[in-house]
From TrEMBL:
Required cofactor(s): Fe(2+)
The name this protein goes by in its record: Taurine catabolism dioxygenase TauD/TfdA
Gene3D superfamilies, A to Z: Clavaminate synthase-like
Family: Belongs to the TfdA dioxygenase family.
Coiled-coil positions: none
GO MF, one annotated term: dioxygenase activity
Protein keywords: Dioxygenase, Iron, Metal-binding, Oxidoreductase
Limits of the TauD/TfdA-like domain: 18-342
InterPro entries: TauD-like_sf (IPR042098), TauD/TfdA-like (IPR003819), TfdA_dioxygenase (IPR051178)
Domain of life: Eukaryota
Source organism: Penicillium cf. viridicatum
Length: 343
């Protein structure tokens, strides 16, 4: 443990590998108070996030929503002081497969509600709200049946990193505070890809894939290409997606302008460890810009089938044994490097 960690009483403990997963990332942090975070504590947490990618900060039941937002902004001080999903570019017309607009806690600047169902008369200042976050059947052409769901069967929705990625850049870190956790027996997560593979998990948790592990699974030739290549999401990306892998033509999307679009590198570099992460939000890719080397000619791929075949070939390597589903409790705050994991 670092001297700063000893002085601050913070303790960072790597998560043990689960019986069903080969994932080797994640950690818990104890001994800090996010409401009163010293500079030393902040550096311990920041380094833990970038080193372990996903961390669970224990014992934060009294966390003030504004303090949660201020912590995230402290990690990226040059970013605008707003939540990316709470800008004028995010409307009922553009929210698409995300299900519904996010509800922001009053006075928090940008802490939003994720969950399902009625939240009570007063939920941190939100009156009589019913949460309706995205479910897997918003994106799957053949969703599970009601009977399957009632019998504890489920699927992953779509692995992604967080961000509007239209008019607002993706945040460096996402924090998830567990206020009220679902109760019930373990769920069975089905792959439904013909393999028969399943995975057990408690309800309400979040699954993660380490994008640095994806990068390390690439061949040397693939790494060189990824290091020099880029990708672009469709404008208004969450309305460009349709169930079953279909896409909406650009002229059928809500109004958009090219200058609010993005072109991202395929490989994102960790600011603390220097590790390279193969970081692409697969469901919204409109174009791939391939370069086999720094001086090579760029080849642009816009054909959806070619994009998907290439991405699936890479992502299928990790989407079986390397998924981490860390368990957390009410009062915990889960933090993850949004530039280095898919969730």
């Amino acid at each position: 443990m670092s001297s700063a960690a000893q002085e601050s009483q913070a303790e960072v403990i790597p998560l043990p590998q689960g019986a069903q997963s080969d994932a080797n990332f994640g950690a818990t942090i104890t001994g800090i108070d996010l409401n009163n975070l010293s500079d030393q504590d902040f550096q311990v947490v920041r380094n833990a996030i970038y080193t372990h990618k996903v961390v669970i900060v224990k014992g934060q039941a009294g966390l003030a929503p504004l303090k949660q937002f201020q912590f995230v902004h402290r990690l990226d001080p040059d970013a605008e002081g707003v939540h990316g999903f709470d800008t004028k570019d995010v409307t009922d017309e553009t929210i698409g497969v995300l299900g519904s607009k996010f509800k922001t806690i009053p006075g928090s600047v940008g802490v939003t509600i994720v969950g399902q169902g009625y939240q009570g008369d007063d939920h941190y200042g939100l009156k009589d709200i019913t949460a309706n976050s995205a479910k897997h059947f918003h994106a799957h052409v053949e969703p599970l049946t009601t009977e399957d769901l009632e019998n504890g069967q489920t699927r992953f929705g779509a692995f992604h990193f967080d961000g509007v990625i239209y008019g607002s850049n993706t945040s460096r870190v996402t924090t998830l505070r567990c206020v009220r956790a679902p109760k019930g027996p373990d769920l069975t997560i089905r792959w439904d890809d013909g393999s028969g593979q399943t995975m057990a998990a408690k309800p309400g948790l979040t699954a993660f894939i380490d994008s640095a592990q994806i990068y390390e699974m690439l061949t040397d030739e693939e790494k060189t290409t990824a290091d020099n290549s880029h990708w672009a999401p469709a404008p208004q990306p969450y309305t460009s997606m349709a169930p079953g892998g279909e896409t909406v033509p650009l002229d059928k999307l809500p109004a958009w302008v090219p200058e609010k679009g993005f072109k991202f590198p395929m490989v994102w570099v960790n600011p603390v460890t220097g590790a390279r992460s193969f970081q692409i939000l697969p469901d919204v890719v409109q174009k791939l810009y391939f370069k086999s080397g720094s001086d090579a000619e760029e080849r642009v791929v816009e054909d959806n089938d070619e994009v998907r075949v290439w991405l699936n070939n890479i992502l299928d390597r990790i989407c079986k044994p390397n998924i981490l589903i860390p368990e957390y409790e009410e009062g915990d705050v889960v933090m993850f490097n949004n530039w280095a994991v898919l969730e």
